[in-house]
Structures are given as structure tokens and as C-alpha cells.
Amino acid sequence: MYKNIGLFVATALFSLTANAQSSLKTGSWNANLHREDGKKIVFNLAIEKEKGKTKLYVVNEPEKMLVDDVRQVKDSLFINMPLFESSFKLKIISKDSLSGTWVKKGSVKTNEMPFTASSRVPYRFAAAKGDAETQVQGKWKVDFQREGTTSPAIGNFKQEGNKVSGSILTPSGDYRFLSGIVTGDQLWISTFDGVYAMVFNATVTKDSLTNGKLYSGNAPVQNWSAKKDDNATLQANTNLRLKDGEDGTLNFSFKDLDGKQVSILDEKYKNKVVIIQILGSWCPNCIDETAYLTEFYDKNKDRGVEVIGLAYEYTTDAERTNYSLGKLVKRFNVKYPILVAPVALSDPKKTEKTLPQLTEISVFPSTIILDKSGKVSSITSDFYGPGTGEYYTKYTNEFEQKITKLLEEK
Prior knowledge:
By secondary structure, this protein is α+β, with helices and mostly antiparallel strands. The protein folds into three domains: 5-118, Lipocalin; 138-228, Lipocalin (Beta Barrel); 253-408, Glutaredoxin (3-Layer(aba) Sandwich), CATH 3.40.30. It has helices at 18-23, 284-300, 318-332, 350-354, 390-408; strands at residues 27-34, 40-50, 53-60, 63-67, 69-73, 76-80, 86-94, 97-105, 110-118, 138-146, 149-160, 163-170, 173-174, 178-183, 186-192, 197-204, 208-216, 222-228, 253-255, 261-263, 273-279, 305-313, 338-344, 366-370, 376-380. It starts with 17 loop residues before the first helix and ends with a helix.
């Protein structure tokens, strides 16, 4: 099963000079990305001492993401996030204060947001209205509103006292680990992982969430609302399938990160159950699926299971692509090959050029499972990560049952 991201790295996060170690306070830090409209995207950092070394984590309860690429030059810190093309350029203002910029590369341009952090405020959100007046624990039927249209989602939350954790699921994925509080009648939850940078706010009553606002990066504010519904369901995006008339056989050959050509027709994959992971290094849900598939593969490869990752990246620049995917491989110690699709993610004909037997790939991650005869057994785009609780458990249980059944077939 999925383990905390931090547990996948055996080495220390960062080891600064003695001066830096003494200048930064250990403990929980309140971190803020400052939007152009004055609103803040709030999350937590943790600076900890372990065996004499200073370590940095990005915290979204219950996840602690280890950050192990930190470089100090005098009073400046340069932090590369362990996943994604995401980094911080910071100045040490004092032992309990940092200031600078968050930088995230995109498919077309590089986005920047001002950043501050302080250990003087150890919590995530202030309980400005006191204790929670009501509970948000359970399932919620969520509606996001934008430009006159409504998009469905499900909120799945846990609450202890006024602390809240959980996630929001959409037809194409989830928002990973959300954490925050209910204070009075106000819900405040947020996440930051290097790509997702979000704060959700809403007014809470017994069975509804109203006046909801979603602040995501510097994107325009999005309205949302929800109704308590323990039976809420969500139709996952299932548009990816074999084209009519196809016999279920795939035929592809792409290079891995070392430049080696790998084909689905290679001897290695004959008479095996093969899982083809459609992913991108820019995709947060792909990160969670990679963590799961890596452990699943390590446990099941001797049973006749193989996994192939096929990555669609922002550009066809080999150096940029290998750097981003290399971070993913290193973080999870991925032992199955990750191949690089020779097209940009934005290419409208990317599926036709790479997997022409399929309809258009529009959801990441997507998973194709081949039976031992090499035929497509199933195609799904309904992976939900560990932040979603029971949905993740349900997905992994059904996935493992499906693989076992295929392995038992003669």
C-alpha cells in the first residue's frame, strides 16, 4: 500500500552549515503564498533536527513531504521541490522568518508568487472564531461554479475537534491531502505540494457548505457549494477506450530515460500481465499512483506482472523531460521503465501519434491493463490517491483483485 512520501527517501533532506542550522528555528512554520488579490494560500513547513542534521518537510496532514534539495549561499536559500518543476528562492530574514519567491514552470510560461514563512505562527489557520460550531466529517456533494457552468465533485472529510483533513474528488482525480480547521461556522482547508496551491473556504451549517471560495495559485476565485450526502457518487471520466474495430493489441516502442528503446512486443512482456501507466511528471495524482505502483510492482513482479510508464511531458526537450522524470524515479526508487512519448502534452494528435488504437487521452493518470495474451483487458481513469481515504482503499483493492484474476487465467 501507499506509504508517506517522506518514507521513500533514505537520505537526509538537507544539511546546512552550522550557521544556518542555528539561524532557523525548529518546529512548525506557517507558510504563505501571496496572491495578486491580497489573499494568501496557507500551508505548513516543518524544520526538524534528526541525528544532528536539519530536515525540511512540506506538511499537509497526514502527509509530510521530505524536501532534500536545499542550497544555502550566505543568507539565501534555494529550494528545489522533490517533485515537479517547482522551487523557492528565499532570503533568511531572521531565525524565524523567510521571504522570497515560489517559481513553477508550466507548459508555456514560468509562474511566480511572493512567499513568506514564519515560525512565530506555528499553526495553519488561526481559530479566529473559536471552536467549531458544527462537524464537516463525512461525504459532501460538491458543485464548483464557473462562468455559468457547474462541475460536480465529492468532499470526503475527517474532523477531530476543530481540525479537518481529507480531500475533494473530481471526475478526473483528486486534490490530494487537504488539511485545516473549522472555526465557528467557517471551514478553511488548504494544500501545497509544488503544483497544487489551494485554499478552500466556506460557511458551514449542519447539512450545507455555502459561500464557498476556492483560491488556486493566481487563478481567478472560483465559487463552490456543497450538501451533506453520505451516499454521494461521482462518475469518473471513462472516455479513454479502444477505438471501434481494434482487436485489443497495442504496438508501441519508445525510449526510456537512459535512451534505451523499449517495445511492448519485447520478450520480457510475453505471457505477462502488463500494466501501462499513462502519466506526466507535472501531474500530482500521477505522483500518488507512481508511489502505489512502485510498491505493487516490487511485491508482485515475481508473480508475472510487469509495469511500463508512458510519460507525456510539457515539451519534447530531452534535458528538461529527463530532469523532471528523473526526480520522480529517484523519489520512489521506481524499478519499472518509464518511457517518454515523443510528443508534447499540448499536441492535439498526441494519442494518434503514440497509441493510435485508443481514443483521445485526456485524463492523467490513466491505466491500461493487458492480459497474458497481450490484449487490452481494461482501461481506467479513475485512480484516487491516499488523501481520499476509502476511495483509495476501494480502488487499490479492486485493482489488485483484477490483476490476480488475470494472473490465474491460462
